[in-house]
Amino acid sequence: MPEQAVDTEAAEVSHISRHLVSVSTAVRVHISAGLAERGHEPSVAVTHVVPNLPADGLGMSALAARAGMSLQRAGQLVQQLEEEGYVERVADENDGRARRVVYTRRGHKLLRDIDALLEETTERFVEVLGRARYDRLQRDLANLDRGLNGPDSGVRVVTG
Q1: Prediction pTM value
Q2: DSSP of the chain, one letter per residue?
Q3: Number of C-beta neighbours around residue 72 at 10 A
Q4: Would 9 be classed as within a structural domain?
Q5: How far apart are CA 128 and CA 122, in angstroms?
Q6: CATH at residue 53
Q7: How far apart are CA 70 and CA 122, in angstroms?
Q8: Would you write out the chain's pLDDT as a tens digit for each of its 160 residues?
């Protein structure tokens, strides 16, 4: 059987899921190592709750919905974060029966450290791709995310 020419550019695009997973893994490893160096415990609770918990906090039901998990599982992870000193549950000022998950001082330090590590990641991406290609990639991935997951995918966006 004769060899067929392979379009390497098309082959690379056809494996976009593999590349997205690989890049995501590299980012997670960098952030986990950076958090450990800064004295944090990069636990499952941190990776599942923190990206879905806005800086001003959120009710338990809304947090569970944003994280795509049951209220029971969200409660377990929030309890772990409470034990680690990152969050606390306080009465919701709008509904005395409800509890709101908010960051403690240590939790806000965690957010600042995550933001710094994400900035390092962005700088590395820009080094590899150049500013224009990075900006285009970020816009394209944001559009893809919104197209697949809706306008509020739940993941905390770093502003600044």
Answers
A1: 0.78
A2: -PPPP--HHHHHHHTHHHHHHHHHHHHHHHHHHHHHHTT----HHHHHHGGGS-TT-EEHHHHHHHHTS-HHHHHHHHHHHHHTTSEEEEEETTEEEEEEEEE-HHHHHHHHHHHHHHHHHHHHHHHHH-HHHHHHHHHHHHHHHHHHH-S---PPPP--
A3: 8
A4: no
A5: 10
A6: 1.10.10.10
A7: 32
A8: 444 444 555 555 568 888 899 999 999 999 999 999 999 988 888 888 999 999 999 999 999 998 889 999 999 999 999 999 999 999 888 877 888 999 999 999 999 999 999 999 999 999 999 999 999 999 999 998 888 878 766 554 443 3
Residue 100's DSSP bridge partners are 59, 90
* Domain ranges, residue 53: 14-149
Domain annotation covers residue 157 = no
Taking alpha carbons only, the member of 111, 52, 147, 23 closest to residue 139 is 147
**Count of domains forming the chain:** 1
Looking at this protein, which amino acid is placed at residue 103? Y
116 in any annotated domain: yes
Instruction: Tell me the torsion sign for CA atoms 153, 154, 155, 157.
Output: positive
**Is 104 inside a domain boundary?**
yes
